[in-house]
Amino acid sequence: MSALVGALQYGSGIAGSGLVGLLANGTPWPMGVVIGVTGIRCLTSTLLLRRDTTRL
To answer: pLDDT per residue over 2-42, tens digit each?
Structure first.
């Protein structure tokens, strides 16, 4: 399981770097956009996958 998580992290880093390179225009905007989109996806997956702990 640990190897799978590591591979997913490494792969997402490669994809993010590729996107920043494709969107590069000499400003910091491409990096900011990739960080923002990644953060929104992380929040969305956390909200969708979290367990309901209010019901005991």
So the answer is: 899 999 999 999 999 999 999 999 999 999 999 999 999 99
What is each CA distance from 6 to 2, 11, 13, 31, 37, in whole angstroms?
A: 6, 8, 11, 22, 21
3-state secondary structure the chain: CHHHHHHHHHHHHHHHHHHHHHHCCCCCHHHHHHHHHHHHHHHHHHHHHCCCCCCC
Q: What is the pLDDT of residue 50?
A: 86
CA–CA dist 29, 20 (Å, integer): 9
Beta strands in the chain (DSSP E): none
Q: How many helices (H) does the chain have, and how many strands (E)?
A: 2, 0
